[in-house]
């Protein structure tokens, strides 16, 4: 039950959104037990972001929530892949991307909790 939400300082096209969604669906497998079949992805384009007091360069804040326990080694590998995806598709430099992880012990779906 992963959820990846991206706040992006620039506009994105439908094609870019679909490419990012597809590549995140492949990348989520880096975390053991996670797959695209349970992945939800959200986009917040043209989000007002500032980094180091400036908004001159494209920026992204990517929140990754996963059901279960933390996996720092997998999270580190996923951060690298997320930075590659956003750089390849949107031209956002990896040093202008933050990725935040949250392991969640209570996750609801379909009228109940896991």
Please characterize this protein's 3D structure.
- This protein has 114 residues and is α/β, with parallel strands linked by helices.
- The chain has a single domain (3-106), classed as Macrophage Migration Inhibitory Factor, CATH 3.30.429.10.
- Helices cover 29% and strands 27% of the residues.
- It contains 2 helices and 6 strands; from the N terminus they run βαββαβββ.
- The chain has helices at 14-27, 72-90, and strands at residues 3-8, 40-44, 60-67, 97-104, 108-109, 112-113.
- A 4-stranded mixed sheet has the order 2-1-3-4, with helices on one face.
- Helix 1 packs antiparallel against helix 2.
- It is globular.
Task: Write a short abstract of this structure.
The chain has 114 residues and is α/β, with parallel strands linked by helices.
Helix and strand topology:
Layout: E1 3-8, H1 14-27, E2 40-44, E3 60-67, H2 72-90, E4 97-104, E5 108-109, E6 112-113
Parallel strand pairs: 1-2, 3-4
Antiparallel strand pairs: 1-3, 5-6
Helix pairs in contact: 1-2
List keywords for this structure.
114 residues, Macrophage Migration Inhibitory Factor, 29% helix, globular, alpha/beta, two-stranded antiparallel ribbon, single chain
